[in-house]
Design a protein that fits this description.
Blueprint (H helix, E strand, L loop, with lengths): L1 H8 L9 E8 L2 E10 L6 H19 L3 E8 L9 E6 L6
Parallel strand pairs: 2-3
Antiparallel strand pairs: 1-2, 3-4
Length: 95
């Protein structure tokens, strides 16, 4: 995931508007990390909250995520780490 994001931020490869995710199951919990790559930097915090919530709910539905972190990376960001981060906990357990 990190190599894909680095390549995308440096101008190569696909990714704008895409979300990468990785998951692991520990006991009855499904932990998911997602990185959303945005072409432009989101200035509005409410816009990021709505977008990250939608991504988190989608991952909970598709992957059965119980604990999820969604990270925002913008292509032209001045931040070397991330531009937004949201944490979610969903009810349920791994099947």
């Amino acid at each position: 995931m990190a190599a894909t994001v680095r390549r995308w931020r440096s101008g190569g490869g696909k990714g704008a508007g895409d979300t990468l995710s990785a998951q692991t199951v520990v006991g009855d919990r499904v932990f998911v990390v997602a990185v959303h790559m945005a072409r432009v930097h989101l200035v509005d915090g409410e816009e990021w909250r709505a977008m990250s919530r939608m991504i988190g709910l989608d991952l909970a539905e598709k992957l059965g995520a119980t604990d999820c972190v969604v990270i925002l990376k913008s292509r032209r960001s001045k931040s070397p780490t991330f531009d937004g981060v949201s944490f979610f906990r969903f009810p349920g357990s791994a099947n």
